[in-house]
Amino acid sequence: MSEQDIQNQETDAQDVQSQDVSNDDLAQRLKQLEEQNKQLQEKYSSVVSVNEQLLSEKQKAEEQARLEAEEKARKNGDWEAILKAKEQELEAYKEKDALRVQQEKNFAKEKLIGSISSVFTNPVLTRLVEPDFTYSEDLGKPIFKHNGVAYDNAEKIKEVISLDPQFKDFVKATGATGGHASGGINRTPIDNGVSGKKYDDNKGKQAILNKFQ
């Protein structure tokens, strides 16, 4: 074996080792991102819980103040003050009802978003398409508005996202898109469904990481 052949073998071995390190590094960073996302979700839930508690305590205090003011006005025969207290009570109920309606809309939207999250290889990526979700007042339901077209069916939304070139490197493979059933990074071109053409796994992983740099 010539000296050049030996050098080539050493170079190939170094490349393989470098590739292994790169894969391990990407996997570790993905794991860190998932953990960070989990922590953020827990923190968000905690903040929401505290805010709801504070809002509830504030509403109770305001309600108690109105009742006391109304009782005092009744004792004094101050009907103008009683009327004002009733108007404030009505406004408070309107605010409560508006908040309830908004919460129902938000819940419906989150439910639709959750129904399509399985299309991704990583739950974090659901957040990439969240801005395209909104609540349609005309239709009275949540919709996914993408490239100027509105969709309200979860399966259709999954299909639209799967066929979008910008998501092709980290959309889960499905039969509809001509991919593999493993559920990993799709190695089959989604745009034309022709099998046999391989994608570089690292390309897909790097595309994910680049979104969070």
In short:
This is Scaffolding protein. The chain is 64% helix and 6% strand.
Keywords:
single chain; three-stranded antiparallel beta sheet; 5 helices; 3 strands; mainly alpha
**First and last CA, distance:** 46 Å
- If you compute it from the alpha carbons, what radius of gyration comes out, rounded to the nearest whole angstrom? 28 Å
Secondary-structure content class: mainly alpha
* Strand arrangement in the largest pleated sheet: 1-2-3
Major β-sheet, in short?
3 strands, antiparallel
Mean of pLDDT = 69
Helix content: 55-70%
β content, as a range? 5-15%
Number of strands: 3
| Count of helical regions | 5
List the helices and strands and how they pair.
Layout: H1 3-76, H2 79-116, H3 126-129, E1 133-136, E2 141-146, E3 149-151, H4 154-163, H5 201-210
Antiparallel strand pairs: 1-2, 2-3
Helix pairs in contact: 1-2, 1-5, 2-4
